[in-house]
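job 3f2a | input accepted
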Amino acid sequence: PVPATTSSLPQVILHVFDSFHTGFNGFGIAHQYKHQPSYDPECSLPAQDLSNPADNDGASMVVSDTHHRPPWPWPNMSTWRLMAWQLTGNGEKSGAETTRLVHDILLANDFKLEDISGFNAETAIKNMDRSEATLTSNSESMDAPEWDGWKMNVDIDIQVPSREKCSEGNGKTFTVHGLAHRSLVSVIRAAFMEAVVSQSVESW
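job 3f2a | predicted structure (204 res):
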């Protein structure tokens, strides 16, 4: 005889946890527990275990309330004013630029303090812009080699394709008057003649 088969239901084990998730503290740390905690696990920790003091030998840091007058910490007022200029502002003034300011400008033989009495950078920039505008307006009367290789008032013929049948097959020719153009060699030569290029250093 065939033994009778007995059907068994699948067993499912369900673990239910009353989980608890704390909020993030000031250090961005949070805890997650499977059950509601009955106490604060950090309440019994001493304060020295919750911090990392910078002074490992236990010596306390003494903060001096003494106010140092200029030129501290530099030897003279000239250096103090120069370093104060570098350390203030938009933060784009590097130490190398400050050193170049001293050696290439302030210590130059032709630099005179009386020449910059009442100096204003914005006014100097506006004067430069007006001078460049005058140079541009007068360039049309100059020969090409006298103005960085520019060729002024040149008539250029261009061919534009059209739907009409053309015996030459190149479209219609139009003339554009009064153009100014410059060769690539002249552009490169003028760029390397700038004063700022002669002072640059190329690093690899």
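job 3f2a | The first strand starts at residue 20 and ends at 21.
job 3f2a | closed
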